[in-house]
Amino acid sequence: MIDLRSDTVVKPTPGMRAAMAAAEVGDDVFGEDPTVNALEERLADLFGHEAGLYCSSGTQTNQIAIKVHTRPGDELIGDDGMHIYRYEGGGIMATSSCSVKFVANDRGRFTAAAVEGAINSVADNYLTRTRLVNIENSHNRGGGAIWDLAEVERIRSVCTKNDLALHLDGARIFNAMVADGRAPLEWGKPFDSVSVCLSKGLGAPVGSVLLGSKPFILEARRVRKRIGGGMRQAGIIAAGAAYALDHHLSRLPEDHARARRLAEALMELPYVAQVQPAMTNIVVFRLHGERGAAPLLAHLRQAGITALPFGPDTVRFVTHLEITDEAITRTIQALASFNA
Ligand SMILES: Cc1ncc(COP(=O)(O)O)c(C=O)c1O
Predict the structure, then answer these.
(1) Which of 8, 9, 55, 59 is the best mutation target for the ligand 1 pocket, counting ligand atoms within 8 Å of the beta carbon and taking the most?
(2) For 278-297, what is each residue's pLDDT tens digit?
(3) CB 127: neighbour CB atoms within 10 A?
(4) Half-sphere exposure of 73 toward its Cβ, with a 13 Å CA cutoff?
(5) pLDDT band at residue 70 under the 50/70/90 scheme
(6) Which residue stretches of the chain are H helix?
(7) What is the pLDDT of residues 132-187, one digit of tens each?
């Protein structure tokens, strides 16, 4: 099968499994797992934050961050496609009892002016307290769109002026940095907290790291414990994440080139109405007509290719380290043979 559903489907390579088998471990809830500690410190140093916390998933790092930044009844600002709102089981409402205000956006990216206009006046007791802004980079529903760091820095200034925290959902921040050529230190700086996933494009089997100040991470550790997220000999999986950082970062441009190839081929097809420009490893496209995405997905499945619907007439392809040039060629052939 050619699995274009997500970059989360990647299985550990033999080298990664060997590194995991050899990992030094300890009880991470006691803070004694050397492999976890090293991973947390490595990512904190890389992004210029004081401390890190290794968690089981990106959902957990994001939702812990929201919990620590807010009080019940607060409001956070973001776009209507953001993962923390759409795809994290209602955690903003259920775990943190917060409301959300959406701002106008282009493929998930919004402006500092939009944020400024969405902040509730603290003097008005009819209104909820605005407390947090969330940025997702690259943006999943936005078809892997990447943010302009200058706009993020302007949003940082608005946050500082209005006493708001700024969180980065960096599930695919390494993909974004490959595309914009910026360093992790530049991307870490504007944010109070950063969630970095190792189990997406990097191909580790499990885990995300939450970054922030020492007091923030201390509180995040308490929330992680409260929700049962404390892991014991987690060095086994953290070793896979460290291996991914060592061996898989440098190959991310290949995924982007393959996504661009897919996007270019899609643009030529008469049944495709629109293709979002492929900026990273995600390609989102919309089909003409009334039949929706299902017939195309069924046709691809017959050719041994799986992808996800991303709306009634929209499809998402994601490239990753198991998708070769030959797989792209086969996918393009299968797309060309679809009778719309
Ligand atoms: C943008 C974004 N944020 C967060 C997550 C959550 O990560 P996890 O699946 O590890 O909970 C995902 C998952 O795909 C994602 O795409």
Answers:
(1) 59
(2) 999 999 999 998 889 999 99
(3) 12
(4) 5
(5) very high
(6) 14-21, 34-47, 58-69, 83-86, 91-94, 112-118, 149-161, 173-180, 184-188, 214-226, 235-247, 252-267, 294-302, 325-336
(7) 999 999 999 999 999 999 999 999 999 999 999 999 999 999 999 999 999 999 99
> Would the pTM of this model clear 0.70, i.e. be above it?
yes
Query: Structural domains in the chain?
Result: 7-247 (3.40.640.10), 251-336 (3.90.1150.10)
Six-digit token string for 262? 């897919």
- Residue/partner pairs of 243-248 with CB below 8 Å, 24 or more apart: 243/15, 243/16, 243/19, 243/20, 243/204, 244/16, 244/198, 244/202, 244/203, 244/204, 245/42, 245/198, 245/202, 247/15, 247/16, 248/201, 248/202, 248/203, 248/321
pLDDT band at 206 (very low <50, low <70, confident <90, very high): very high
d(CA 5, CA 308): 5
Cross-strand pairs, 326: none
| Burial bucket for residue 336 (CB in 10 Å: 0-12, 13-18, 19+) | exposed
Residue 45: CA count within 13 A, CB half-sphere: 6
- Average pLDDT of every residue of the chain: 97
Kindly tell me the burial class for residue 30, based on how many C-beta atoms sit within 10 Å of its own C-beta (0-12, 13-18, 19 or more).
exposed
Identify the pLDDT of residue 245: 97
Which atom of ligand 1 is closest in space to residue 139's alpha carbon?
1
Ligand 1 center to residue 83 CA distance, Å? 7
Question: What confidence score (pLDDT) does residue 289 get?
Answer: 85
Q: What pLDDT, in 10s, does the model give residues 25-61? A: 999 999 999 999 999 999 999 999 999 999 999 999 9
The Å distance, Cα 104 to ligand 1 centre, comes to: 22
Closest C-alpha to ligand 1, atom 16 = 140
Residue labelled with tokens 């946050």? 159
Write the DSSP assignment of 293-315 as a string of letters: SHHHHHHHHHTTEE-EE-STTEE
